[in-house]
From TrEMBL, chains A, B:
Positions of substrate binding: 387
Record domain FAD-binding PCMH-type: where: 84-264
The keyword Flavoprotein appears for this protein: yes
Domain of life: Bacteria
Keywords for this protein: FAD, Flavoprotein
Protein name: FAD-linked oxidase
Family the UniProt entry places it in: Belongs to the FAD-binding oxidoreductase/transferase type 4 family.
Keyword Flavoprotein: yes
Organism name: Noviherbaspirillum denitrificans
Swiss-Prot/TrEMBL cofactor(s): FAD
Chain positions of site Important for enzyme activity: 299
Length: 544, 544
């Protein structure tokens, strides 16, 4: 069964090896044993529902608790410590667009706030219930998961928008196709969730971000149904898909989505290349990106992430051999690991990898074959389970990400890691911070940083510490000129920083769009543009 | 000097060869000699300006006439026959964003409608002045043409948005870069115009549509200045660029635009491939597109366009030889010409062309080398001058375009050409109609049809005939399920058909966005979503 207070299925465990624990003790100190709150105890404290009865709405405490939060650090702290905060008053599981309409009408009649819930994997607070007197209805879309239409000629497939990654890919794979959208949350996150949060998959270099994959669909809004036809391209005015993308539940509920699919590739390979240092690696990466070589993935780890990856890989003997070889080839302390993937027919894949390796070698890159890439691919949705094991040993893991132009990639990475270190230092703690560039563009790259640090066993202390950490790294991003999110979205956690990039006029335009579709303000209130103008003004003042 | 009533510079002429005239006489009959209205006569009939004086506004009749219309068939008929209809009351030529602001404030104070004018190349009626009591100010942006910022690391360049294609490319070329955006209107159309009408260049397969090239910018709106930062990518809420793209002057004036540029390619080659018939050609094209081969262009002419191209190519002897060779290889009557381009470093270009030719050969494609492609490239901005020569001989040329899924490409092409033929047949006239697929996607293609038919020498007759023709082909597009425009935009000519694809809720959302930035309704009133709800409802009823 799905864990109620952690990642993934509770039959799947990735315990930490002694080596890894030793490494962590070295980097941030000995963790304490954590005692999680019990599900039943938390359920017993859930207040009575304030919703009128409705045949589609479940108001039981266990269901409300299981659908009340996501996977942000704030959500984890709340659930693990048993302090969930406001929860929805009921959860509906509609099976059709018509039932979604019925639920929206029900919410409108009773002035209930509505929270659309896909796979529950948001890491930025899209799913929390707002505090206040208004009842809250969460609409879980997991039963809108059917393949509704399939057009191999146009390479289009239409799904219920609540379909999760594995179900979607299984249905396409059976027909010889793939969507090719593989975010780390793939095992649970949903098509609709990807769209309304502007998700980006690990192989977006080939398949495109979800913005490119989303061709059209159907959205139920409080003002009516929005049908968006799927054209190959159009110059006809405002592209309505763009009002849905990134709307984070504020204008309605996407119930059907038509996506652009591809034939399953003959070949899907990942090669590892090591560079002596960051400078060479980043330069090679930029040149590969700007040569527009048709790869599927480019992912560059900085020296600390590279070291961490090798230390946690297990198989000490083999890694030792590899490191001795790399050292002879000039890649020793400070080396950086680049993973490059290509997908498609065998010949173009060979050509693309060959062309990219040629550029890498010009910058002292050392090709290390496909073994590391194969291992990465096999574990790419598994690493996230480590978060459970780390928590059990008293360690928190949080991540933050942005995208920025090439010249500012390295300074931004540095600023983010330093901001985290400073916050933890002030608390007398160390942070193990490392970064990779996860998505690469001719213009720049996404910067994805991970922080591992110790928990205290006290909710208030850990919560306050996380808030300080989150504020410091977010401010570092904004001050560096990066977007507040490249792939996770805004939710509540990033809402105070959105004003810096959209401006007052832009934020007001977004609100105007929301009001058009949702004049009563029912839909996911407080998310994205926030209820938090004051906080935003504070941030703006601080950064000015 | 720029022609006031036709395409391009008046020192450039492409007279029709006797062969071509013979061909046309054969297809649609003998044309009459046309007598154009004289510039001075039309100027003398321009009514006095209703605008208050402003130091930046020129109210002279010649300037108002020269900036009052675009290049749509309606505009041509009006200018050639000397019946221009409503013209702006004045034209301003601002040199900075601040002057644009000043002009918007001036317009707001005097409740003047504002029409942004880029290169004056719109073919769908973006530029006409609305009738009515309100004075009209056209803002010509051609002096906002400087390169403002250049970042080779991020491959970004910021220009004044009024920069025209050749000036833009010249400034980039001097630095070793290109934008790679080459619509047929390239010689006059502007960066800002491309953006606000969602333009697509001939090599968009490599460089992207303008949507992908436009990274950020500055827009002056009646409500204030909208600054859009240029991130490599972002998941932060609604993408404000998307409110600017396709806005067609309704929310403000784009004064600066940051675009994604590329290194000048080592190689920029175009190959011709002939197919025995449409079916083989279209199938090959679809497979090439869906294999995602990194080409720069795919452009497929149907049999009539292929025949027309060969008949008008001049050099009868060489063409005769080619046709005998093609005939031996199975491409005779009904053959179709595919042009495929690739740009970039020499090796990847060779690989891409090689991979595409392999697929073409599987579908009986016959490679005909690079000569035809070179000729096409040399003339790609010249063919449009033929419109002048044809008019002089009594022939009208109009074009229409859409984009649609693969399965409906052929039926849509047929429906469009048939609709035109029927309208002209009812008038006792013939039409020479031909089509090419100009932009190719894995999902489908754009369908671009050209109509050549005879003029009568009478404005009212020709105007009524064109309206019937335009209505018939537009209705055929909507009935086929295509978008009303793939690359030309909406303006006034397509406004009645926009409702069919956006729906009432979508149109209302667009209007809401316009109202947000322009509560007084100053900006390009009547364009895009139209003042013409009734006409739209008529269309919807007809098609239902």
């Amino acid at each position: 069964m799905r864990r109620w207070n952690g990642w993934g299925d509770d039959t799947i465990d990735f315990p930490l090896q002694e080596d890894a624990l030793h490494f962590l003790r070295e980097r941030v100190g000995q963790g304490i044993a954590m005692a999680d709150a019990a599900f039943e105890d938390v359920c017993n404290r859930v207040p009575p529902s304030r919703l009128r009865p409705h045949r589609l709405v479940d108001i039981s405490a266990p269901v409300r608790l299981r659908n009340g939060l996501g996977q942000s650090m704030q959500d984890w702290l709340r659930l693990r410590y048993g302090v969930p905060g406001p929860l929805p008053d009921g959860v509906a599981f509609p099976e059709s667009s018509e039932q979604v309409r019925e639920l929206l009408d029900f919410a409108a009649r009773h002035d209930a706030a509505v929270i659309p819930y896909g796979g529950g994997t948001s890491v930025v607070g899209h799913l929390g219930a707002p505090a206040g007197a208004r009842p809250v209805l969460t609409i879980n879309l997991s039963r809108l998961n059917r393949l509704l239409d399939f057009d191999p000629d146009a390479q289009l497939a239409t799904f219920g928008a609540g379909v999760a990654g594995p179900e979607l890919e299984a249905q396409l794979r059976a027909r010889g196709y793939t969507l090719g959208h593989f975010p780390q949350s793939f095992e649970y996150s949903t098509l609709g969730g990807w769209i309304v949060t502007r998700s980006s998959g690990q192989q977006s270099l080939r398949y495109g971000r979800i913005e490119q994959l989303f061709a059209g669909g159907r959205m139920e809004t409080p003002q009516g149904t929005l049908h968006i036809p799927a054209f190959p391209a159009s110059a006809a005015g405002i592209d309505l898909r763009e009002l849905v993308l990134g709307s984070e539940g504020r204008i309605g509920i996407l119930t059907e989505a038509t996506v652009r699919i591809s034939r399953l590739p003959q070949s899907d390979s990942f090669h590892a290349v090591f560079f002596p240092g960051w400078r060479e690696a980043e330069t090679a990466l930029r040149h590969i990106a700007q040569a527009r070589i048709p790869l599927s993935m480019l992912r560059l780890s900085n020296p600390v992430e590279t070291m961490t990856t090798l230390r946690l890989a297990g198989n000490k003997g083999l890694i030792g051999l590899l490191e001795r070889y790399l050292s002879l080839r000039g890649c020793a302390h400070g080396k950086c690991l680049l993973l490059m993937g290509a997908s498609g027919d065998r010949l173009p894949v060979q050509q693309a990898i060959g062309n990219a390796l040629r550029i890498a070698r010009n910058h002292h890159g050392v090709h290390a074959g496909e073994a590391i890439g194969r291992k990465w691919k096999a574990n790419r949705f598994r690493n996230v389970y480590l978060r459970n094991a780390l928590w059990g040993r008293g360690y928190a893991v949080d991540t933050v990400e942005t995208a920025i132009d090439w010249l500012r990639v390295q300074p931004t990475m540095h600023a983010i890691e330093q901001a985290a270190a400073q916050v933890l230092h002030a608390e007398g703690e160390r942070v193990h911070a490392y970064t990779h560039l996860s998505h690469i563009y001719p213009q720049g790259a996404s910067v994805y940083s991970t922080f591992v640090y110790r928990l205290t066993g006290n909710f208030n202390t850990d919560f306050a510490r996380w808030r300080r950490l989150k504020a410091a790294v977010s401010e570092a991003i904004v001050a560096s000129g990066g977007t507040i999110s490249h792939q996770h979205g805004v939710g509540t956690d990033h809402a105070p920083y959105l004003h810096a990039e959209k401006g007052e006029l832009g934020i007001a335009a977004m609100r105007q769009v929301f009001r058009h579709f949702d004049p009563q303000g029912l839909m996911n209130p407080g998310k994205l543009t926030g209820a938090c103008n004051e906080e935003a003004t504070d941030v703006a003042r601080k950064l000015a």
